[in-house]
Amino acid sequence: MTSEPTRPAPGPAPAPAPAAREGGVSLVTVAYLGAIFTGPVIPLVLYLVKARRSAFLRYHAGAAVNLSVSCLLYVVCCAILGGLLALDSSTTALLIALPLGAGIWATMAAYLIRGVVAANRGDRYDIPQWICARIVAN
To answer: What was the pLDDT predicted at 98?
Structure first.
């Protein structure tokens, strides 16, 4: 009797990395989280520098730029409202403008974090159009 070497039973092949992840999930994460703290600066730089290399990065960096610029415009409107209210009473201006600005920032941060989670899964995340104007193409 000759003994033949035993081969391991064929198992499922390892799943290849999605093509979307070739663009670098870490750069997308930097774009989204950078937008929380620096506004549109970091995602815009990544969009301008790396957008031609990866459609995945272009989509998510564009979404981060669009949301952060939209929220920046909302904050400017909130500051104008606060300035107008300050003509009457500074207390009223602070009681209305500060919570409104904090709510805008918290909403932006929540949508950016949802974008990070979707990007780490390799998916797209469409930010609702009622909160985000399309400023750069993604």
So the answer is: 92
